[in-house]
Prior knowledge:
- The complex is a heterodimer of chains A (276) and B (298).
- By secondary structure, chain A is α/β, with parallel strands linked by helices.
- Chain A is built from 10 helices and 12 strands.
- Mean pLDDT of chain A is 89; it is low at 84-95.
- Chain B is mainly α and 298 residues long.
- Chain B has a domain at 84-247: MetI-like (MetI-like fold), CATH 1.10.3720.10.
- Chain B contains 12 helices and 2 strands.
- The mean pLDDT of chain B is 86.
Amino acid sequence: MSDADAGRTMVDIKAVHKSFGTLEVLRGIDLEVRTGEVTVVLGPSGSGKSTLLRTINHLEKVDSGWISVDGSLVGYRRDNRATARRASGKGGGGGRAGKLYELSEREVLKQRTQIGFVFQNFNLFPHLTVLENIAEAPVSALKRPRKDALDRARRLLDRVGLADKAGAYPKQLSGGQQQRVAIARALALEPKLLLFDEPTSALDPELVGEVLDVIKDLALQGTTMIVVTHEIGFAREVADTVVFMDEGRIVEQGAPGDVLDAPRHDRTKAFLSKVL
Amino acid sequence: MSLTSDPPIDTTTPATTADGADDHAALKVVPVRHPWRWAAIVATVVLLAQFAHGFITNSGWEWGVFAEYFTADVVLKAVWVTLQLTFYGTALGFALGIVLAFMRLSASRFLQAVAFGYIWAFRSIPLIVQLLFWFNLAYLYKELKFGIPFGPGFFSFDTMGLVGAMSAAVLGLALHQAAYAAEIVRGGVLAVDSGQLEAAAALGIPRLRQIRRIVLPQAMRSILPNAANEVISLFKGTSIVSVMAIGELFYQVQVIYGRNGRVVPLLMVATVWYVLLTSALSVLQHYVERHFSKGTTR
């Protein structure tokens, strides 16, 4: 990534609401993430952290508000004519005159290839080898030649320290190794943005470190990431911004030193006093 | 590579006390005896021996007649017809079944309802009744036309000629089979962890590829045992089409013993063929299941 990109807005979330039935999970979220930055989202269970993360690559559809990644709306396309009319100086009405077209499934899938997602439960494909897991999406979604995809998959495995596991099946690996494969699989698409949904929550305590090390390494190389986690130490060490969520709202956000060491809100203080 | 390992056996542990009272390693282990198990085994052996003796010595089995007809041309032809009925019934049945399964899994309420209605109807109608319906299709529709719906037709078939006994049988078996196959396939797809589809979607893998490469190979694990049941039950179920005077195995055997009166040996001819071919299917099932169990631990 070039330095010119740094500081540009990568993710822009505006007034996002989401309900499951009568339960309102996200109650108006605004968040901006800049290119090259690491944002760590903290909060108690049920605070909406995971749902927020899943709306960013359209695994969940938002009820209102909008999200853009690298300048393009997630899941929708803006009516060009309305934009043109507004640009010609007519409109004082904002985007109200235009329309948002829902993207087709094919277009949504294409958008997702630019956003890597790492799941809490890894979700590796159990019937494919580690190498096939990593090369699958580059071949089928990006139409890369199979040989190139496999070569690249081997390099990525090397990068997460699992070069000798190429032919293994996921069930033959430890949880930590599986999650490192899942990270390599997400990286194989060369995404602009990486989303981590509690990447270490399903791991035995002694395996957490090896996964966090891989994520830290990515952070040092300037990968733009949003990480939902309960690992406060990791947040302190790696995050550029820490976001604390509770009951579907962002309670406070800022530099890790501010939010973690001098929280302004009682809710944040109460949460941190329990987890620290 | 194995995921389990035996606990290390420590052979070096010394006796815990010096006087030898706790030194179990030096004692001889006497296994528990099972006298009643032996009694049961003896009784079972006697019964089996009696059965085998009767099988061999009872002249009513007429093994000579059995041997004469077992590989007779007319019987072999009938076996071939039975195999064809099974093959086409299975192939068409599962092809339609997969379509119905994905209709039931689709987001469209209408498609769901149509598939549900089909499955409800064909599971409710006895196969034999349905077969006779197809056999008599010509009473209902004189000809089949292909063309614009409700409009003019481009070409047409005479129903009488098109739905002969054999195609009526295949049609009936396949439509019946499709209803069961649909539920088996749907069950298999539902058994695949939803995280798998989510991961495939998050990676941007195209929809058809998600199904073909990610979902179906995993669904096959739970589809196969049930599907094998269905194929085997269809294989034996083909004997039902004897009501339509089709020369499959059971019908042919009936024809022969109707002529020569040797009922028992000819029923044995059919029985042994059914057993042999079912066994072959079971062996095939074993290998197909092994193919789809890659990456699993059980």
